[in-house]
């Protein structure tokens, strides 16, 4: 599963496309929200359902349009970051993305192997969807990565990209 640093770094990168850095740094926290379920000692719970996220997103956006059209972009970005977290999790291990429509957790496995020989080059793609029974049971503890080597690499890449934009004078022009 992606660590919290990866979720935040990628959320910051996306949010910084729309907002000034300080606002983006705050809004990027939305990319961590699906993991609030660990406070209830259940991980990959209903907070990791794309179905519920989409339903909530449509309802909240409808209310937002009704009361404050200027808040539509921030609310849309928050839901996009929230959904991105769920998709990233589904790319690494079973996640209940279609709950309550389908009572299984799903993981999408993507792999592209290359074959190089003396006169031939081939790419061999493989995509599979693995299903597992739902497990919404409370545990005595939840263990998972907060920072990993991949998260550090991704965070450094995001920081470098933002630094280059800052030095080029392109950061900080968003909402």
Task: Give keywords.
175 residues, alpha+beta, globular, two-stranded antiparallel sheet, single chain, 43% helix
What does this structure look like?
The protein has a two-stranded antiparallel sheet. The longest helix has 19 residues, at 72-90. It starts with a helix and ends in an 8-residue tail after the last helix. Helix 1 (4-15) packs across helix 2 and helix 3 (50-67) runs antiparallel to helix 4. The chain has five helices and two strands. With 175 residues, the protein is of the alpha+beta class. It has one domain.
Shape: globular
The portion of residues assigned to helices is 40-55%
Largest sheet descriptor: 2 strands, antiparallel
Count of extended strands: 2
Distance between the termini: 32 Å
Order of the strands making up the biggest sheet: 1-2
Sum this structure up briefly.
The chain has helices at 4-15, 21-27, 50-67, 72-90, 149-167, and strands at residues 104-116, 121-133. The protein is of the alpha+beta class.
Write the layout of secondary structure elements.
Elements: H1 4-15, H2 21-27, H3 50-67, H4 72-90, E1 104-116, E2 121-133, H5 149-167
Helix pairs in contact: 1-2, 1-4, 1-5, 3-4
């Amino acid at each position: 599963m992606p660590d919290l640093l990866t979720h935040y770094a990628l959320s910051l990168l996306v949010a910084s496309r729309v907002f000034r850095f300080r606002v983006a740094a705050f809004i990027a926290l939305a990319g961590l929200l699906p993991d609030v379920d660990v406070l209830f000692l259940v991980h990959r719970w209903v907070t990791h359902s794309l179905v519920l996220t989409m339903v909530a997103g449509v309802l909240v956006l409808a209310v937002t349009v009704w009361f404050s059209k200027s808040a539509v972009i921030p609310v849309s970005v928050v839901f996009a970051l929230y959904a991105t977290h769920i998709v990233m999790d589904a790319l690494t291990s079973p996640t209940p993305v279609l709950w309550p429509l389908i009572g299984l957790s799903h993981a999408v496995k993507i792999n592209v192997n290359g074959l190089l020989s003396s006169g031939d080059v081939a790419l061999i793609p493989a995509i599979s969807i693995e299903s597992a029974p739902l497990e919404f049971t409370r545990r005595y503890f939840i263990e998972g990565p907060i920072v990993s080597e991949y998260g550090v690499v991704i965070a450094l890449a995001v920081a470098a990209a933002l630094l280059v934009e800052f030095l080029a004078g392109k950061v900080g022009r968003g909402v």
